[in-house]
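Box 3.1 A note on notation
Throughout this textbook, protein chains are presented in two layers. The first layer is the amino acid sequence; the second is a token string describing backbone geometry. Keep the layers aligned when reading.
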Amino acid sequence: MIKLKYQMLIFFCLTSLAVNAAPSNKISDKTSNKRGKIRLALPKTHLTAAELGVIINKADPLSVKIGEYYQLARKIPLENMIYINFTLKEKIPGYINASQFNKIRMEIVKKTHKRIQAYAIAWRTPYRVGCMSMTSAITFGYKTEYCATRCKLTKKSPYYNSTSLKPFLHFGFRPSMLLAAKNFKQAKLLIDRGINSDKSRPTGTAYLLNTKDKARNVRKRFYPLIKKHFSNIFNLEEVNSNFIEKRNDVMFYFTGIVKVPKINQNRYLPGAMADHLTSTGGRLINLSQMPADLWLEAGATGSYGTVVEPCNFTPKFPNPFLAMLHYYKGSSLIEAYWKSVAMPGQGLFIGEPLASPFAGYRLSRQGNNTYLHTQVLNKGEYALVKKTGNSYKLIKRYKIETLIGPSKLEIPTLAEGNYRIVRLKPKVSPPSTTNK
């Protein structure tokens, strides 16, 4: 990696994390009380299977097998399945030229249902289009402003740190992620991990590594912010080492090094994020540096790497704080990862897109009282309402004081019916993410 000859001050502004105030039954949990069945829905926090398109290359039998298993496992609507047919003309492994790609993308767009907001790409290669990654080229189209030669910044993504739940509707593009696997067994394990992570609300550890590689250890600037806001939520370990081993609770693993030793000697919780900042981690056929898909083989559910020399500009890599923040507030893996990268043109997103370990809620009883526990509600005022015919009846009001962190709301004894928590006042004062 080319070492920067000058120091930059990069400022990241965390905007309001207001969730969509329109209630949705799609993420609700069913429960019951002494008076019968009730259904409680929280504001929508993440993309659903109905909004995800799956791209399959019919010329690749493994792509077909992975994509069709994913459709069944995730219950993706059949009309969301996008079949194309191509063979690579380039002799460079994992590479497709811009001319061939543009024709393929035109076909993908033509076959995409209007409700689709993001893509899962059911193959490991190709992963690079000219000077862009496959995921960014599928998302934005092949545009050289998202590329850079030598040490230069690229065009920013408007989706970065966004509150949007519908990126195509709001920005006109669909974030994408590779279901990257060398064989069907690995793909099935990856998909199953993502599904098993949903609403699991894990309590694992975030490992923040300080390696001896100073050029690649630049994301350490985000660690104080993570400690400030997540110290009472996750177990955090800042480790001064090139690697960790024999850990059985890995939920987040952020590091910077060419090759990460002993990643297979850890246990990764379903939904785990893990990535390493280096020049060409996104080149999945890579002999010189560790490819990002080795994280998936080791048990992680999502990862990231660049396919073209990015230099050590942190905006071209996941911001660990933002990745953790959006994930914890209920985003899916594809949303949390994409929202954490300011300049994703050269970066490859891989994993199970819909994994949503922190979505939803749980109910507990203490004596005669029932409580709702969730962290997806942001600072502001909310109301619990019951649907009665074509209108809603106010049951109780709540005020959420914390910006980041779990909320515990007392729920009155409810009669059988459909209930929703809706947002009334989305007033938020976000924490600063300025880095010096």
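The chain has a mean pLDDT of 89. Residues 256 and 276 are 5 Å apart (CA to CA).
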